[in-house]
Amino acid sequence: EHERPGAPGLRLCTFVAKGRMSEPPSPARVAEPTDPSDAAATCALALRTLDGIGTRIDLLEANRLFRLAAEQESIEAWGHIALLATCYGAYKTGGSVPAHRIKEAVAAWRTAADKGDADAQRYLGTCYDLGVGVPQDHAEAARLYRLSADQGNDIALSNLGSCYKTGHGVLQDYAEAARLYQQSADQGYAMAQCNLGTCYTNGTGVLQDLAEAARLFRLSADQGLAQAQYYLGICYKTGQGVLKDDAEAGRLFQQSADQGLAPAQFTLGGCYASGQGVPRDYVVAARLYRRSADQGHARAEASLGGMYLHGKGVEWNPEMAVMYFSRGCHPSRTSESEWNVHDGVHPFS
């Protein structure tokens, strides 16, 4: 079985869900800064690592580089760490950020934004979108995204598209959302390609076109975006827009799961439990269900409960089964279609 990546509460980057998680394997590190004492260069390298410019997207490596820059008293680096911590949790990014550092970063971005700097306008917009260092204000976030998008900033275009798709800060307009995603995707921005792919999958703001959706997911997945890898895997698993190929689906789910995406871990666990596209292996299935369940994925919790109940991949333990069933089957938990997506706002450049 499979399910969409969730973005509980805030509209965040959706390639990793919030919650408690085990560390996924990280891709090979990009080159170290030529001069580690050059905070600006280190921060720029971190931003390229987040967007997969010249390398594959790697959240953990980007955070490490931001921390290096922060050690050199980079105000901008502290701001990015604060946004990362909001999106992915302080547990993931090495601890919370001192309040005074966040205020300094917001003040610096505001000064630059007032002078027309497109990146600063988008960063400040994200602060308002997520409530980082300022009161949450979706209307102000949309205004700042628009100022940046009007200068052609690819991520601001995508973020503004998400505002229109969700109706946060603007009147909901699916066609306008798709138009903005298209402009951003045309610049090669991975998150926009993925978001536009979901529009074509659902027929939201555009005519439904599953082949075009799969093409866009592939462009995004090839840049290393875990959410796009998962969605492209769903395409191959179901035969939507591509020829059905369980082995290719399993390969893509593995790539996404290795980055810590809970729905991909859950879906890959199901593949191993059923032997679909991968060799049947209950031990591996249970391990993947556990990694997904540790992030609060309800269906993974219920599936892990079933493994304990039947003693498959784990030692038979009815008490553990009841515990996981009670978590996964709680009335407050819902399961949604894998295509019922919530688009994410990406705080980085």
Q: Strand percentage, roughly?
A: under 5%
Instruction: Give the number of helices.
Output: 17
SSE sequence, one letter per element: HHHHHHHHHHHHHHHHH
Number of strands: 0
How would you sum up the major sheet? Answer: none
If you average the pLDDT, what whole number results? 82
Apparent shape:
globular
- Structural class determined from secondary elements: mainly alpha
* Rg calculated over all Cα atoms: 20 Å
Give the N-terminus to C-terminus distance in angstroms.
34 Å
Keywords:
single chain; mainly alpha
Structure description:
- This protein has 349 residues and is mainly alpha-helical.
- It is 60% helix and 0% strand.
- It is built from 17 helices and no strands.
- The protein has helices at 39-51, 59-71, 75-88, 90-93, 99-114, 118-130, 138-149, 154-166, 174-186, 190-202, 210-221, 226-238, 246-258, 262-274, 282-293, 298-310, 318-328.
- α1 (39-51) packs antiparallel against α2 (59-71).
- The longest helix has 16 residues, at 99-114.
- The two termini are 34 Å apart.
- Residues 1-30 and 334-349 have low confidence and may be disordered.
List the helices and strands and how they pair.
Layout: H1 39-51, H2 59-71, H3 75-88, H4 90-93, H5 99-114, H6 118-130, H7 138-149, H8 154-166, H9 174-186, H10 190-202, H11 210-221, H12 226-238, H13 246-258, H14 262-274, H15 282-293, H16 298-310, H17 318-328
Helix pairs in contact: 1-2, 2-3, 3-5, 5-6, 6-7, 7-8, 8-9, 9-10, 10-11, 11-12, 12-13, 13-14, 14-15, 15-16, 16-17
